[in-house]
Structure formats: C-alpha cells, structure tokens
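1st attempt posting a full record on here, be nice pls
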Amino acid sequence: MSDCFTQDPLSLTQLEEKHSNAFPLDVTVHTGYCGPNNEVCFSSGDRLHVHCVKSLMAVNLLTSAGRSVTIPLNSALQFCLLFDPDGDQDKALEGTLFTRVTDILAPPPHR
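the predicted structure (as tokens):
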C-alpha cells in the first residue's frame, strides 16, 4: 500500500502546478531517485518538506574527464577561455579572464 494521498503519484512539475499555493507541503516519495554520481538520492517512502520552487539560470558544462556539471550563473567561480575574443593568437594561448559566467555568454566586442 502506498503512502500517497492522491489517486496517482505526481511528478515535481505536477506537484508545483497543482499545489504550489499550498507550499510549504509535506510529501512522500513514491518512486525513488538518484541523481548524477549518486549525490542526491531519495528512496520510496522518504518523507520530504517542500518549501518552494526556484528557477535558477545555469550553464551546463562537460569537464575534460567527461563529467557533466551544472553551474549557476551567480557562481563565484572564474573562468579563462583558451581563445581571445579579439582574435589575438598570442593572447589566446594565455587565455582570457572572464569574471562572471554571464560574460562567457556575451557576444565578443566588434572591432
């Protein structure tokens, strides 16, 4: 027998669509879940307290080791790309310092 109080289990999207006005909300996990690299796992029957739904702008990256990583745009990380937006080959070998993730997504300056 399931701990679900609804006729059918709901996805997170359905839960948010149907019950966001009732948050915070106590829920029971119907179908277990393990995220990438088992960093976040929930088992069937786990009880959770849902506070809110957040939307977060992020960049998906693939590391040189082949690992997929998601980094929020407001991250404190800094990146250097191995090319120069101005087309200077010597400077490209040194990389270009970008102080914010959003700077990477910005179009290069036209010269």
